[in-house]
Write a structure and sequence with these properties.
Structural class: mainly alpha
Largest sheet: none
Distance between the termini: 58 Å
Helix content: over 70%
Length: 253
Amino acid sequence: MSLDFTPAPAAAARGRMVRNHALTEASLILRNGEQLVVALVIPLALLLFGRFAGGRFGIDESSVAPNVLTLAVWSSCFTSLAIATAFERRYGVLERLSATPLGRGGLLSGKALGITLVALGQLVLLGVVALALGWRPQPAAAQWPVLLLGLPLGMFVFANLAVAMAGVLRAEATLALANLVYLMGLVLGGIMWPVASYPAATQPVVAALPTGALGEVVRHWSAGSTSWLPLFVLLVWAVISHLLARKAFRWTS
């Protein structure tokens, strides 16, 4: 009795390819020391500092945890993604991968899923640490839909802005500018301080930023209050940022 083996080479199922690429993207971010500092070390340090600052430096202790959770999304979905994409574009990685069976759509889907996994891991880890330090969120039932829609919208907006930046600038310029924008968003963009703590003349501007809108979504959820306005701001930014990314992004440098 003989057994005949006929090889039948074929690409893996598309869903499997996207999943594997997402896991690769996530592992590359977590294995990069500089990006790990931005993604975890800085948020953890700010969480500990805010917890023990005790109301000094204009920091409201009750808003420290939601501020840091917002920062985690900002750091991964904007800063880390912009830098990683810019260098992948510079070295031709994006062009080569897009020519594989994964394709451009699968490549972008894998990157989106990978950065989402990293951001969710950050939120879980930082949330557990914040609870251990005494954070006690009191969410209102009406704010849950705002949070569950606002978080993915914020990730979507930040990722589109990251891709737009990485698709226009050189890798070195993206590295510098992404870190600068990260710091500006942290201090001036309504992430580490509530919108109401800024000068009255600048509050409408901060509230209209995607960073400020996401920060308000998470802070309202934590405090037990409800506001739909930040969600509408994020919806507008989702449209604007997506159109910008589609217009600006180039696969090759």
